[in-house]
Design brief:
alpha+beta
């Protein structure tokens, strides 16, 4: 998992699969507003025509100026938002589509989530009741953290 302290090292970094296949360059990282933890990376590759896709950083590692992702290039290339310009923000609905695509669950919904930290089901339900009901497709908990800035 990539830590907040590693954000600056991602600037100009290239992303690779665990098998050593180059995916593209890191454009920017999306960071969770609640925890400050880097969650998603946007990758582009002008040479191959990869127009910008999101990959999760949950199981990624930074090795000698290389971001190593535990996913096949074909899976990354088919990620939702690849053909769309999702901008520097993901809505909750877009993030849920990405979780499903990569076969991940939202860690905020884990049973052992710490209450009051914005991670548990009850915290999310409370937030929705407090004003985001019906607008979840437009609401985001992520913000762009451009590496090196």
């Amino acid at each position: 998992m990539i830590k907040q302290e590693q954000l600056a090292a991602l600037a100009g970094c290239a992303a690779y699969t665990e098998g050593g296949q180059r995916v593209g360059g890191v454009e920017y990282v999306l960071v969770d507003d609640t925890t400050g933890r880097p969650e998603w990376v946007r990758i582009t590759d002008r040479a191959s025509g990869l127009g910008g896709v999101f990959a999760p950083l949950r199981h990624a590692v930074l090795e000698q100026e290389r971001l190593v992702l535990p996913y096949a290039v074909s899976l990354i290339e088919r990620a939702p938002c690849a053909a769309l310009d999702c901008g520097s923000v993901l809505t909750v609905a877009e993030e849920q589509r990405l979780f499903a695509h990569y076969g991940l669950t939202d860690v905020r919904e884990e049973v052992n989530a710490e209450p009051g930290a914005g991670w548990s089901r009850m915290d999310r339900a409370g937030t929705i009741r407090e004003g985001t009901a019906g607008r979840e497709a437009r609401v985001s908990r992520l913000r762009s953290a451009r590496p090196g800035r």
